[in-house]
Design a protein that fits this description.
The chain is mostly helical. The chain has one domain: Four Helix Bundle (Hemerythrin (Met), subunit A) (Up-down Bundle). It has 8 helices and 2 strands, in the order αααααααββα. The protein has a two-stranded antiparallel sheet. The longest helix has 26 residues. The two termini are 21 Å apart.
């Protein structure tokens, strides 16, 4: 079950080197294309299939990536432009249960991901190493989160959810 839930393993931050930063930015840059490829040619029945028992449907995963991208990009920009801002958490489970997440075509969210990630990569490549030391406060977690850590998480998060889609495609031979 853990392999279905975390197909690429759980996220762990052990610091950020220049090599890590470059790889994570490259991962973020590649995500929209990987998501588009993972969703290609799926019909509505496939899109409405959960990637694991008790998990979201493929459609919900696609829309979650857009939701998370909007929120994460905003958190990143807040940390860059304000001194240690407190971010607004969002209830990912409840967002995934709204009508748009249950019914909209994934292309709608793919367009959001493509736009946000294009801007994000431009922003990331413009940043100085010291910018990644900036932090935001996550009130739900009760902790400060540095942009270096958050960059690694965002790169992992995208690959994690694309793997949910590609793994069910592989298991079901779609």
């Amino acid at each position: 079950m853990d392999k279905l839930r975390y197909p690429i393993g759980r996220y762990s931050f052990e610091g950020m080197t220049v090599k890590h930063r470059e790889q994570w930015i490259a991962d973020i840059e590649k995500l929209p294309g990987q998501l588009r490829e993972a969703l290609a040619d799926l019909d509505n029945e496939q899109l409405d299939t959960p990637y694991r028992s008790g998990g979201w449907t493929v459609r919900q995963v696609a829309h979650h990536l857009a939701d998370a991208s909007m929120n994460s990009f905003s958190r990143f920009k807040l940390a860059l432009t304000e001194s240690n801002p407190t971010i607004k958490p969002f209830n990912e489970v409840r967002w995934a249960e709204t009508a748009d997440s249950l019914q909209a075509a994934p292309d709608v969210s793919l367009a959001i991901v493509e736009g946000i990630y294009a801007r994000w990569v431009l922003l990331l490549r413009s940043m100085q190493a010291s910018d990644f030391e900036k932090m935001f406060y996550h009130p739900e977690k009760g902790t400060q989160i540095g942009l270096a850590n958050f960059l690694g998480f965002v790169a992992w998060h995208g690959k994690h959810h694309v793997a949910h889609i590609t793994s069910i495609r592989s298991r079901k031979d779609w």
